Amino acid sequence: MSGRQRSMSGTIPSMESSHQQLKDNTIIIVLGASGDLAKKKTYPALFGLYRMGFLPKGVKIVGYARTKMDSAEYHKRITSYIKNVEDEEAKTKLEEFKELSTYISGGYEDDASFDNLNKHLVDIEGGFQGNERNRLFYLALPPSVFIPVARNLKVHCYSKAGINRIIVEKPFGKDLESCRELLSSLKQHWSEDETFRIDHYLGKEMVKNLLVLRFANVAMGAAWDKNSISNVQITFKEPFGTEGRGGYFDEFGIIRDILQNHLLQTLSILTMERPVSFAAEDIRDEKVKVLRAIPPIEREDTLLGQYVAANGKPGYLDDDTVPHNSVCPTYAATTLWIHNPRWEGVPFILKAGKALNEAKVEIRIQFKDVTQGIFKDISRNELVLRIQPAEAMYLKLNTKTPGLYTRAIPTEMDLTYKRRFTDIHIPEAYESLILDALKGDHSNFVRDDELDVAWKIFTPILHWIDGKSGPAPKPVQYPYASRGPKELEAFIAKYGYKRSTEGYAWPLTNMASL
Ligand SMILES: NC(=O)C1=CN([C@@H]2O[C@H](COP(=O)(O)OP(=O)(O)OC[C@H]3O[C@@H](n4cnc5c(N)ncnc54)[C@H](OP(=O)(O)O)[C@@H]3O)[C@@H](O)[C@H]2O)C=CC1
Ligand SMILES: O=C1O[C@H](COP(=O)(O)O)[C@@H](O)[C@H](O)[C@H]1O
């Protein structure tokens, strides 16, 4: 079956065929191996894949960064966030994983360091069978060194006898112009086919589920438009502030950190038309099409906030690495509009904040009111997809109160993954995405034109916030560990969101209280 005609059966996804999978003779090279991302996400994901038997046969992993470390220090660092290694089998796997992982120290700009890295790779490859030599480069590095590293890898470390791939992490620029510059510099050395731009939200189970939920269910498909849906909220909440990352964060702000990438990617899958197949280019074509129908965000469709000290926690400006008068938003709510026949008039509210009262990422689709007449003050239906923590999907419905009287009460149909899928391991986003990159499947990676159109939507509002088009707006304050700015309720209500009427409790356990 060709790559452009692939379909998904009920049980066996055939999304994998037709790509060139790296099955053996492969080295995975993690650049920035001393860093935060490598330690917290990349190596735990690599170990997860190794343990489940998904890495190429005989795989070797090479860490690279400037920090000087011996093997013991490197192994300690890369395994420090690996969890659930209690039983003997897991312990053995972890020892094997350490053994196949080596480290080389070197700079990011100089030729000699990359020649030295290449020599190490060639030495390892000396132990491979056959002639094929595949290399997967993972850039867990700050964007300031993306370009020299991408260049040096191509010039000094590119395998001439196999497949080369490069995984790059966000941020992909700071606005439309800088993104274009970055992409064109990377393209001088790496083709689109070789490049895998990660947005790790595309690897999250519930985000991946959107395609199946929407297109494998007639009931969902029928209600998925402006005729049934009143408004949609996509919410990201983190219970901690920018402590320790303030200096980095201040340059970017919450919109660049979360909304422009993670939430917009989620929105594009939620709203795109049905792709011709599950082939990467078919999916990404549809994502680009819907994003192109979104005009740049208006200032009046935006609410910005910054957290202040409360509940024994420091405020954003209390961080020494943050300028004392910074107006960088740590909270943002923005409303996007899609000008196409399916979505005209439906507000899509994207909200994200640091230092809030809980950790939660969810999509909340609120349906329209039922026709009045036989009902009065009846709750709206809502479909909630909880991306994290504890993946779940529930539909709020009105049902008759059981008993000898006729009264409607809001209740829910609940699909909580942990209860429904008791013996299943839900992969970490990075496990899923690294595996896709090894398979050569771009479906869950961001294409260059997606980035271009995403930045077009956000660049004007970001330039306003950066003070590039007049005085920068001052974010409203909200206390650390609160629900966010107090102005939020009114902001959401402006777009037609209605809270459930009185009487809704979730989960509903006590009929006597009704
Ligand atoms: N941390 C996270 O959870 C997430 C990070 N990302 C992205 O992943 C990438 C890496 O992030 P993260 O690991 O947090 O970054 P770090 O700041 O930890 O940097 C990674 C490594 O790069 C080297 N490095 C740091 N600063 C510089 C510099 N100014 N010049 C040259 N080298 C430098 C350091 O290694 P050495 O000095 O040893 O060379 C460091 O260990 C970034 O693009 C980030 O935006 C994306 C999603 C989540
Ligand atoms: O990209 C980023 O994502 C993390 C949140 O990721 P999650 O998988 O834990 O939801 C966020 O903390 C960080 O600021 C941002 O750069």
Automatic annotation (TrEMBL):
Protein purpose: Catalyzes the rate-limiting step of the oxidative pentose-phosphate pathway, which represents a route for the dissimilation of carbohydrates besides glycolysis.
Domain of life: Eukaryota
Pfam families registered for this protein in UniProt: G6PD_C (PF02781), G6PD_N (PF00479)
Organism: Phlebiopsis gigantea (strain 11061_1 CR5-6)
Metabolic or biological pathway, per its Swiss-Prot or TrEMBL entry: Carbohydrate degradation; pentose phosphate pathway; D-ribulose 5-phosphate from D-glucose 6-phosphate (oxidative stage): step 1/3
HAMAP family from the UniProt entry: G6PD (MF_00966)
Any one annotated GO CC term: cytosol
BP-aspect Gene Ontology terms: glucose metabolic process; pentose-phosphate shunt, oxidative branch
GO MF, one example: glucose-6-phosphate dehydrogenase activity
EC number(s) given by UniProt: 1.1.1.49
Family the entry assigns: Belongs to the glucose-6-phosphate dehydrogenase family.
The protein's name in its UniProt record: Glucose-6-phosphate 1-dehydrogenase
UniProt-listed Gene3D superfamilies: Dihydrodipicolinate Reductase, domain 2, NAD(P)-binding Rossmann-like Domain
Domain Glucose-6-phosphate dehydrogenase C-terminal: 211-498
Keywords: Carbohydrate metabolism, Glucose metabolism, NADP, Oxidoreductase
Sequence ranges assigned to domain Glucose-6-phosphate dehydrogenase NAD-binding in this UniProt record: 29-209
Catalytic activities: D-glucose 6-phosphate + NADP(+) = 6-phospho-D-glucono-1,5-lactone + NADPH + H(+)
